[in-house]
Amino acid sequence: MLLYLIIVGTILISGSLIFLIKTDDKLVLRFLLAFSGAFLIGITFLKLVPEVFRNSTTFTGLFVLAGFLLQVMLELITEGAEHGHRHQHTEGERVSPFLLLIGLSIHSFLEGMPIVDGFDAKLQHTLVIGIVVHNIPISLTLMSLFLHYGCSKWKSFLYLTIFAVMTPLGSLVSRLLDASLLGSMDGWFNNILAVVIGIFLHVSTSILFETEENHQYNRRKFLTVCGGLGVALLISLL
Prior knowledge:
mainly alpha
């Protein structure tokens, strides 16, 4: 329950920060994205990939690719909000915040499915930390987009709350399946984690290559990326 509260609370608090950060000044968001992208890819390779391939099957790699391609498909709806993209639309172009919410909710739901008792507590905590760090810039971007698309503050918070509960909901669905189905679910959970790894790989690499216009890495961003990787390494060793 505590893990769920941390995930939901982080999203709601991060989304509220949009009223304290100037949305026209993207510098803060860029460095948040650079740090979160580096941290996400760090824990993916240092912790999640070794874990999922420890009990791998012939199809484990295919599940990773499936997660990667699924994220590509979801971005047809979300337009890259998972990695901080904000597309400018013409005045006559209609954009549905509800479709954006659906795409991000699917993304968030899948991320929560591996958070189950089938994995050790250390792996669960690592995955939750990755999701939390990843959700901070997403929440800022999401609130900004909802407001930009004409939603009121209350409706924007309602949509953000729906997004926030999707990760715990994904975890609860997995727990219910584990409790109701006969036989071991370890293989199924391992495949779900492989899908999430594919999602993380797409999102993190997109963040690292799209944090700055013209894909130019300056010294400060390089140091931010190194910081994210360093924190990921520290957590993986704890």
